């Protein structure tokens, strides 16, 4: 049970050889710069790109091989594009129904009402689609894709055409959808922010092809990949809300690393969240400091130190098995005698809830 | 006012225009779709062929049709054996002539409308389990509605005004092949200006009303869009 591909996509001017196996659950992000073929790969999976050669199979059904080509409408998938691509001659609920009524009754796993509720569309149902804002249109497009009861959802940079506010408005809907539906998603993005928030599996792409693939927390902290070299390199830590502190207006979260304290959030106790720790916000100490203003301090072991000629070195640590990155100056590496295997303490100056 | 022959000429004209328009929409829709979507290298040849009636003198078109309708010809012979009568000087012959004569007036608005439909909507429909035929009927045709209105009205109006082709292949048999435009010509030849006036005014009014319909519906669609 998985999505397996071994194919060549593209035409003369551009072609990409891809060999990939993605798990049939959670969000798999195809991440890379513009023009590296992420969208082409997604279109190949959807069967929208006739110039694809090779093997594509999903859950034991072969979608494409040398002598098979299952047309798009017979693949049990749905796709959300960069543009909403709503049907202009239909209103909002008719757009949703277009997808819903084409699913045979016994294959319906997502009801119309459920999709409307997940994307909060109940006030928009009778509206003409061209009167909607960009964010509303994209919400309708996502709901419409869900109404097709897909077994695989493809999302091609669904937020990139939206302004910052609309992005902020839609991301929680996508997260809610991921949490509520047991639906594997392949998500194409060139935004590390979206990937860090959503991805369970991360496929790193460069113009020359797929560079690496693996689970998101370890991919983000792999020193030999471009992700960790980035100025905004980050680690992600899965955590759970355990308590709120009324006196200091803080929220406490439990994770494998230890207890995190962040500015109070209105989240129910027990909520699963993802924390993002930017590498440049992490500093290292040899002893556990008590005379510091920093609250989030955890023991960790140095696993790897990047080779560099510049001022900054990137250090990968493990804190109770969770990979965390720190960016410190090379001068400090020498001054503190930091080396692989050394037990140290990490201080996270700021932690963001994703 | 109208003589019995004039009335039957008007009726015949409307019947011819209605049947030809219906046939043109049936035949023209798939052809226009193909012209709008095909990547075929030599598509321009078909486009030129379809546009030919726009520039060809109607007598030339009529002359070749007359030849084709002859029972000695394979086409005329085939039709003769199927229907038992010759196409020349028959209503059926007029319909065939009108369909060819008005073809570009139906194809071009349809082709334009189909070209405007982005492949984006059609792709989206494909990812929502719609088969190619389903996409054509559920997406392409509704989105091309203004094109269909223009095509139907232009095809109808253009057939109303047909003269040269009808004269060549239909002659001038009252009640059978005499259409309004030819009846007008007859009246003028016989210096019956009053009767010519009535018929001509009738065609003028009808054509004007039809064109008003086209432009009004286009305008309304534009308003709905914005």
Distance between the termini of chain B: 47 Å
Structural class of chain A, please?
A: alpha+beta
How much helical structure, as a percent, in the residues of chain B?
A: over 70%
User: Please, what is the oligomeric state?
Assistant: heterodimer
Please describe the biggest sheet of chain B, giving its number of strands, its sense, and whether it closes into a barrel: none
Give short descriptive properties of this protein:
heterodimer; A: 354 residues; alpha+beta; five-stranded antiparallel sheet; 22% helix; 36% strand; B: mainly alpha; MetI-like fold; 11 helices; 80% helix
3D structure, described in words:
The complex is a heterodimer of chains A (354) and B (226). By secondary structure, chain A is of the alpha+beta class. Helices cover 22% and strands 36% of the residues of chain A. In chain A, strand 4 and strand 5 (61-65) form a beta hairpin. The relative contact order of chain A is 0.11. The model of chain B has no long low-confidence stretch (mean pLDDT 87). Chain B contains 11 helices and no strands. Chain B is an all-alpha fold and 226 residues long. Chain B has helices at 4-37, 43-55, 58-69, 74-83, 91-116, 119-126, 132-143, 145-160, 164-170, 180-189, 193-225. Helices cover 80% and strands 0% of the residues of chain B. Chain B has a single domain, classed as MetI-like fold (Orthogonal Bundle), CATH 1.10.3720.10.
